[in-house]
Amino acid sequence: MPLRVNGEIVHADADPEMPLLWFLRDRLDLKGTKYGCGTGYCGACLVLIDGEPNHACMVPLNRVGDRSVMTIEGLAKDGAQAIIDAWVAERVPQCGYCQPAQIVAAATVLVDDEPPTAEAIDAAMDDVLCRCGTYQRIRRAIAAVSAGQIEAPVRSAPAGELVLAEPHGIALNDWVSIEPDGSAVFMINHSEMGQGSINAIATLIAEELEVDLDQVRVANAPAASQYVNPTFGVQLTGGSSTVSGEWERLRRAGASAREALIAAAMGIWGAERGDCRAARGAVEHAPTGRELGYADLAADAARIVPPADIDLKPASEFRLIGRASARADIAPMTTGDARYGIDVVVPGMLVASVARSPVIGAELEEFDAAAATAVDGVIDAVEIESGVAVVAKDFWAATCGREKLAVRWSTPSSPLRDTDAIYAALEASLGGDGKVTDERGAVENALKRAERTLKARYRTPYLAHVTIEPPNCIADVRTDRCDLWVGTQDQTETQKTAVRLAGLQPEQVHVHTLFLGGGFGRRLETDFVAEAVELSAKLGRPVQVVWTREDDMLHDKFRPAHCVAIEAGLDASGVPTAWSHRIAGPPVALGNSDMPYAIANFREKKIRVRSPLPVGAWRGVGAVQNAFAIESFVDELAHAAGQDPLAYRRALLEHSPRHVGVLDAVADMIGWHDAPPAGRGRGVAVYYSFGSWTAQAAEVSCDRGEIRVHRIACALDCGQALNPDTIRAQIEGGIAIGLSAALKERIDVVDGRIKQTTLADYPILRYSEMPDVDVRIIAEGESPGGVGEPPVPPVAPAV
Are strands 8-11 and 282-285 parallel, antiparallel or unpaired? Predict the structure, then answer.
């Protein structure tokens, strides 16, 4: 079949029923068109066919005919440069996985001289989901293009030089190498999943090394002990710990390399330290004006051991820290050049799709692979620990073969109960034994003496992560080596998984970290890594395992359900004199419970309850769930006392000026003391988590039961701000995912099965549902707090 793709005729020697998506990706290597769901809901695969938007996953090759297909790669060369420039100038992408499709969608409404209507923009952009919540920035980019007001974008590094396979120059320490052209290569030990870790790490090192960011390239660090996260003692990215955990160590790495370079220059010149200074990739000798570039000094510097007690810069001397800088990965993310785990191709690679148990707790009894292996392109069907893998030449053949696989599963001896039964068990456990984790005063006596008591129970549902890039991993296991290409948040556990399954030593397992098309805690798990390693070891060839969206929904490590029971006593003026707090759920839901209010008699008890569903970390972890209960109940108390909820909080937080500071900021931002527009109400919440204080005020309307959030003001006190623009992006994204969870998302269980299997029955926030978000960053203090997770907890209670 001859097809016209990006203006060129190509011949499709493929199954006519193959979706256009897989022909573009696997046969033409046009990786900018992404796989997200396979059912036409996420929009990551959006292409133009004769100028009209189409989901490539839903269009078989035999329906394309002689129509013209345009992908992001074609648009980047012809017709969308203004849109791409606007995306880069507004620094739209976070993880970037959906952004090529977002640009394709924008191109459908930004083709005429007449500015599109808001309704037309909403209709076009609602077709593509962004789990990172970049909608606010997309709006600004579209407005800039529509108005013809596009600034020249800043591109910090060419796409091809963004991530090197390995440094080629002279290493000065574990983190810094100097290349022959004088550029610096930094090792990046935290995964890039949209939070700007590449930019953050580069900034920390460059600040002390005295180079500009356009002199820097980066390489992903291997899984090795020197690259562990200081906060957790293993090499993982999570807990909003990249900047706060590396704040001193990486600056010292840059300072150490700088001092070695200066010492090398001193040796050449016979100069004193006080006469030499480093600036923008060179060492200068002030008395004579002589200068040597870092490339000229690197060989000598590598032999010098710098002193251990190097002074770091004071904040007053920062050139890069605290200033907005362009992320080097933004430009390649917009054009489809950035490579995610799912985009990698290894010579000789097979692709596998795994059939897993549809019922939690069921085990494989037997399978018949005859019909599956008869599918053209299928190589084999292999039993592995998690199920049966159909292995083929490409993903389309693997999934077709998997559909024809005959599998019989056992009936679990203890069938999983339904959602209502799970909640009933959680609520019943609230009255049981647990661990008292915080106690002061005499709660029971104070409750008895209270003028009035209030009780409330709160519960939160199971949630899925829904990274738009489904889980995937490539493993190449040999007798003495294993290579893994994967978007992972946990290099240490990824390496351990391969060590266990391949029977190798840690130093024989090489983890190649790729961009992550969303993480949110899901890629702290290694179930998809285990499948790839096990298959490669059995088959003796590189194997890529790719999950379908349904696989991801049914076999996620969910955010757990949990329940909270609170009882408080008020005095005659409405001031709380006692607070009894009980939390029931798995351990991951019990943490990050912060009670900042000055209540004389307080007790918190945590009751551990085993989850019948597999659970894991979800963005914000326990803080999101516990903030909902605590802050919602404070509103109940304020209502009972007949007091303004913001003033009520302030009175109870007089001992905590940083809580008060962010509350006052959002009150000012949203106009708290002025009447809201007709038909709208306002709510407020404040919470401390991951080293930062966050307050939010929401402006909401409710029309016949439909809740609409129009505005959210957010103030974040994160201490020292590294890159204010990245912080704003994380706040906007955190609000989007928090709002999506509050209004739209839940996982239910029916007869032992997960009910929600696609994005049709598990909807997430879309472009048109994103409120206007106003952000204020309060940067006080000498060290930074977390940023990625703190904006999520206040969303639900504020709404």
Answer: unpaired
